[in-house]
Design brief:
Oligomer: single chain
Bound molecules: 5'-O-[hydroxy(phenylacetyl)phosphoryl]adenosine
Largest sheet: 12 strands, mixed
CATH class of the largest domain: Alpha Beta
Length: 434
Amino acid sequence: MKNYYQKEVETASYEEIRQIQNEKIVKQVRYVYDNVPYYRNLMDKKGVSPDDIKSVDDIKKLPFLTKDDLREAYPYGLRGTDLKNCVRIQSTSGTTGKRVVAFYTQKDIDMWEECCARAIVAAGGTNEDVVQVCYGYGLFTGGPGLNGGSHKVGSLTLPMSSGNTDRQIQFMMDLDATILCCTPSYAAYIGESLAEKGYKPEDNKLKAGIFGAEPWTEEMRQGIEKSLGIKAYDIYGLTETSGPGVAFECEEQTGMHINEDHFYAEIIDPDTGEVLPEGSKGELVFTSLDKEGFPLLRYRTKDICILSRKKCSCGRTHVKMTKPLGRSDDMMIIRGVNVFPSQIEAVLLKEGYPPNYQIVVDRVNNSDTFDIYVECTPELFSDKVSEMQTQEKKLNLAMRSMLGIGPKIHLVAPKTIERSEGKAVRVIDKRKLH
Ligand code: DLL
């Protein structure tokens, strides 16, 4: 028998979903116009009024919202309701300027957790499961989102957070965890650690894993499924839209169903902003349909993907997105943390280094390596190894405090990083994730 968390809406006909969306969008646009002066301004500038939006077909009349807008409006400018109605914030890592701070009312939290509950049930979860959540807890949305979803399903939830692999394995084996939630690279690492400890895949009770927050390939999926003896499901989301659970995979494993009763998805040409027909590859844009704390209209995710309405054997009718196939900006995801080269450049300048650097990212034994080669000025350069090591350590700490993760710093002699005649090659990503 097929299981759904909210069967009626998850398997509703296209016409029914459209009707839900049409009713909600009218209210959401009016709500944003009345409560978010920043977006009202954008609408006024574009000459669009809430009266112009009568159905989701009119969404294309609305202005886009970008990460730059979020930055400009930081921290409160896009909040949709008084602080007294908000009960939580979640945030991305990064400096003040790059940080996204999202606000939630209790209703928003319930909606978000229900989306995560749909993902858990789609992966076979029930109230008899033991769900081990080793996404980070705290400001990152991974831990709190899946934790809340697991509660809604009624599963026994192990709020492990990330790290301390020995302890993860001990709880997994002692408490017979059946569903694992973490980043795919951490799942692969747990698989390897289990093998190193002499466990075979059939020794654990896991049956499924819900993995996301970073790009991963089909090869990685097969590796994880084999090493843990499970079925591995993808889950997608971003802090701006609430967190994980905006879209999730079902047993067909051919893309992620977008929770269309809460989020309206469009694919646009990232250069022109033109809306592209179904099946085209382009930038994913989300409009929230019923958020209160942090409603977003036409938010450009910068994730490149394709949408499909092909009938799914699981019975769910919501549109499916492919895995993100790339980004239309220069954001990297390293060990699950979002990193922009501009953040690295800002630290270098602040610490007195010239902006001649190269970032090298690779994946070795399923975990990301992160190296930064930084050119010294003649004044900063020294023949003494100990002096250079002290400087490298200082720069590592400064990077860690800006990014949330610490790269390995390599200070190199002046004029040794190759100069480019065109655009400087700042990032060498050897991971081949797409
Ligand atoms: O990564 C939320 C999340 C937590 C998703 C746990 C899934 C599981 P942010 O830190 O704001 O939020 O990063 C959002 O991560 O725009 C994508 O580029 C990337 N991303 C998220 N899920 C996937 C995935 C969380 N399944 C950014 N595959 C997004 C590839 C993903 N990339």
